[in-house]
UniProtKB/TrEMBL annotation:
Similarity annotation: Belongs to the carbohydrate kinase PfkB family.
Organism phylogeny: Bacteria, Bacillati, Bacillota, Bacilli, Bacillales
Species in which this protein is naturally found: Alicyclobacillus mali
Task of the protein: Catalyzes the phosphorylation of 5-dehydro-2-deoxy-D-gluconate (2-deoxy-5-keto-D-gluconate or DKG) to 6-phospho-5-dehydro-2-deoxy-D-gluconate (DKGP).
GO MF, any single term: 5-dehydro-2-deoxygluconokinase activity
Database matches in CDD domains: KdgK
EC number: 2.7.1.92
Designated name of the protein: 5-dehydro-2-deoxygluconokinase
Length: 328
């Protein structure tokens, strides 16, 4: 087992961060300016991860703040339908809105996201909204880096991380950098570093680690610097060039799977949910990485990032198709 987890907890995974709405271009393969129709999905990286992990059979929940309107109700009701626990979702009573993401699908390789996130409800999650009892109930807490972009969500995330450590909950930090939410590059540099040092597992793209480190770095050096602190597992994603996981004992690399790509976003969320599933199921690091990579390849071939999350059989079938790697 790569990591041990507390036993006898009602939840396997709780995520903390934004619960939002994605409006994905329906008449795609054109710029956003020319897109007239959109399909509405639940979105936001930590929410997608809770949904993806639930689809694989994990018992998941999410700590978030949503608007007191139709968008907030849409998010909560979808999560309930798919079996993600919503009892720690707080309703904002001060009129802040749920974030919206308009996704542009110009071509399978040219995608972008236009976020409407001014004064969004999720960044108003506050330490008072965090319940110690809820955190005590999970094996893993995943914190999204975007939750650190602003107070009081920033303090809520650090408070939750502290409670997680106190109660033997494994802490996963997903860097999840979205440029528009931060005031300067110094902010993510400082807060990412502080959170990453507290976490057991850190997951991010090379570009996101560069933001954290304040300049271009090397994967191995990134991992070694974190191993001085709490992390024992550091995952660096390189898009279609695959990903690599470092432990104190060494590194394991996995290739991306070939995919008929519809859009590029959502890959990272599918990857995290499936990777954590693999770790919690006690698979080898190689197998957990391959499952992550397979889930990501499936989601990039589909229209959404949440409803598109694959079932275990779909991941296993892709793995066996490519005969990689052996079970562990
Ligand atoms: N075009 C692709 N085809 C197949 N697999 C892909 C593709 N892009 C990404 N992946 C897989 O998804 C993993 C994560 O992708 P990436 O490094 O782009 O993370 P990310 O930037 O967090 O994703 P996102 O775009 O969802 O924010 C990669 O390591 C790879 O396994
Ligand atoms: O909130 C966002 O950043 C957009 C997401 O909702 C979207 O589903 C995505 O980018 C997945 O990673």
């Amino acid at each position: 087992m790569v990591l041990s987890f507390a036993s006898d907890r009602p939840f396997d995974l709780v995520t903390l961060g934004r619960a939002c709405v994605d409006l994905n271009a329906f008449d795609y393969n054109r710029p956003l300016e020319e897109t007239k129709t959109f399909v509405k999905y639940v979105g936001g990286s930590p929410t997608n991860i809770a949904i993806g992990a639930r689809r694989l059979g994990l018992r998941t929940g999410i700590i978030a703040k949503v608007s007191d309107d139709a968008m907030g109700r849409f998010v909560v009701s979808f999560l309930q339908q798919v079996g993600v626990d919503t009892s720690a979702i707080v309703i904002d009573r001060e009129g802040h809105k749920t974030g919206l993401a308009f996704t542009e699908i110009k071509s399978p390789t040219e995608c972008s996201i236009l976020l409407y996130r001014d004064d969004v409800a999720d960044l108003y999650l506050s330490p008072e909204d965090i319940t110690e009892d809820y955190l005590r109930k999970t094996k893993v807490l995943l914190i999204s880096g975007t939750a650190l972009a602003k107070s009081p969500s920033r303090e809520a995330a650090f408070y939750a991380a502290e409670l997680a450590r106190r109660h033997g909950v494994r802490l996963v930090f997903e860097l999840d950098y979205r440029p528009y939410t931060w005031k300067s590059l110094y902010e993510p540099m400082v807060y990412y570093t502080l959170m990453a040092r507290l976490a057991d597992v850190v997951i991010g793209t090379r570009e996101e680690y560069d933001i954290m480190e304040g300049g271009p770095g090397q994967d191995e050096a990134t991992a070694s610097q974190l191993f001085v602190h709490a992390p024992s597992l550091v995952v660096v994603k390189h898009g279609v060039d695959g990903s690599i996981a470092y432990t104190r004992e060494g590194a394991v690399k996995v290739q991306a799977f070939p995919a008929k790509v519809l859009k590029t976003f959502g890959a990272g969320d599918a990857y995290a949910s499936s990777f954590l599933y693999g770790l919690l199921a006690g698979h080898t690091l190689k197998r957990a990485l391959a499952m992550a990579s397979a889930a990501a390849a499936i989601v990039v071939s589909r229209h959404s990032s949440s409803e598109a999350m694959p079932a275990l059989e779909e991941i296993e079938s892709l793995l066996s198709e490519h005969c990689e790697p052996s079970r562990g």
